[in-house]
Please model this.
Amino acid sequence: MSASDLPDELWARVLELGTASSTLGFRELCCLAIASRRLGRLSLHPDLWSALISRDFPSQFQPSTSSTSQQQQLHPKSLYKTKFERHKVRMAEARRRAVFEAEARVFACRRRLSELDNSMRAEGERMKAAAQELDNLERVRRASVALNVWQPQVVHGRQKQLVQQCTVPVESRLSDLNMELKVCKQQIATYKNSYNKEKHKLNEYEEALKRAKYHPLQDNHTSGIINQPRAKRKKLK
Model:
């Protein structure tokens, strides 16, 4: 016995069990509809599409009386198509929001990285200036000590000139500069730690942005169909 010899009642039961068990979805019914006139007629049975509607679009709220009466005038397949198109719009809007939020996170993270980089550069310049001043004051301190030791007049004159040009208390300033260098190193280490953490976050945000921009074939499908990763998308007719 061939498949064409099966009675309509048996085929209808097969389709009914398929939709009830989630084996058949709207794509499969659409494929069956173009397989033959007989299957096209059987696949249009309202109960099949009503089952798909209740499965793929579970009610989130009680519809109003006017909308209920209007829906009752539509064939369940037409109603499924309407809901499907609305679902696609909602999915597209949700994707756009996800992309916008991901882009905002990436932008904020990059701005934070730029701020941290500028802060590290500024702190590095501050540490460099403090180190240069510390080196100059060390020379002044050594020259001040050397003035009490016998030396040639030329050398003694240069050391005396260095001491006279210094207008700040050497010892207290040396202590301040050493403390400033220590603080600068600690601050730079803190900035580097924050920079590395922010860089890690940026990598995660950029990956999330790629995922948000990715458009797999099943994105616009209903929740019951999304779990089929390689299913080809069929347009409802």
